[in-house]
Amino acid sequence: MNHFISIQDVEDKQALLHQALSFIESPWQNESRGQRKTLGMLFFNPSLRTRLSTQQAAYQLGMKVISMNADQGWKIEFEDGVIMNADKAEHVREAAAVMSQLVDMIAIRSFPGLVNRDKDYQEEVMTQFVKFATVPIVNLESSTLHPLQSFADIITLEQHRKASRPKTKVVLTWAPHIRALPQAVSNSFAQWALGYEYDLVITHPEGYQLNENFTHGARIEYDQLAAFEGADFIYAKNWSSYEDYGKVLCTDPDWMITKEKMTLTNQAKFMHCLPIRRNLEIADDVLDSPDSLVVKQAKNRIFAAQAVLNELLL
Ligand code: AN0
Ligand code: CP
To answer: What is the pTM of this model?
Structure first.
């Protein structure tokens, strides 16, 4: 693995999962692999889990970490051939080349603008860093993908599933939110759940279809209650419209995850990447029930990141 931008960078999915599970059992087994290596983290957006879990994963491999919020540096131009007479002070060509001499790996979080769909789906920030850096690049949530989250989700499913993967019904359900959120977590979750051969059903209101490149092979169900029937896992997430790009088309509170809806399932476990808005996306009693995995799921962010960094250090 040269970079970790999406599931497509993973050469052996089973091996990576086994490595992550093995780090859960024995977190310090490779504590000198990253000796004298530094991970540089660059954040264009806020983060709690990704920042702390990736840092902890690096420590458990013996790496040092330098973190920077992008607004502490110069504004970076990502487009080639432009006259740089506006607000951008340096180009990614120099920034990525220089950073590659200062750290041994670069991890980046950069959300989409949610205005121009083609631009967001071109993944300019990741693509340009991969092109102009000479060290591995790690995606900490880009415009359209959040692979470290999805890998942690797969680890969590693996720990809690009661049947084989193809016989485990996983439902990705849209949930209400007041803000326009990216499609990254949902795209990526669909891609990973299908990649690991789970039986995936996606339910959302009309107008919230995701890009088929990520959901091909999943069943789409517009009736949320029908989708919940017999589910082993309910994975909730809000996303803004892909078709009417970046728009909030629905805030219907009937899509909130409630205890009554959970009774339709096969005693499903509840998952969410966090942060979650209580009593908007989900009712308190579901989130506070023993069936909620959200806190355990967040711990698995360490082991997902550790397995990935471990591989990139080879
Ligand atoms: C972000 C998103 O939906 O992509 C980050 C999730 C990990 N969520 C919010 O902005 C609330
Ligand atoms: N789930 C997740 O990526 O959380 P943060 O935005 O806090 O990193």
So the answer is: 0.98
| pLDDT tens, position by position, 231-270 | 999 999 999 999 999 999 999 999 999 999 999 999 999 9
Atom of ligand 2 nearest to the CA of 46: 6
pLDDT digits (tens, 9 = 90+) for 83-106: 999 999 999 999 999 999 999 999
pLDDT for the residue numbered 50: 98
For 161-312, where are the alpha helices, taking DSSP H only? Answer: 184-195, 212-215, 224-228, 259-262, 284-287, 294-312
Q: From ligand 2's centre to the CA of 80, what distance in Å?
A: 30
Smallest-distance ligand from the CA of 280? 1
Q: Is the CB of 49 under 6 A from ligand 2?
A: yes
Integer Cα distance of 36 and 40 in angstroms: 13
E runs forming strands in the chain:
38-43, 64-69, 76-77, 90-91, 105-109, 137-139, 169-174, 199-203, 219-221, 233-237, 269-271
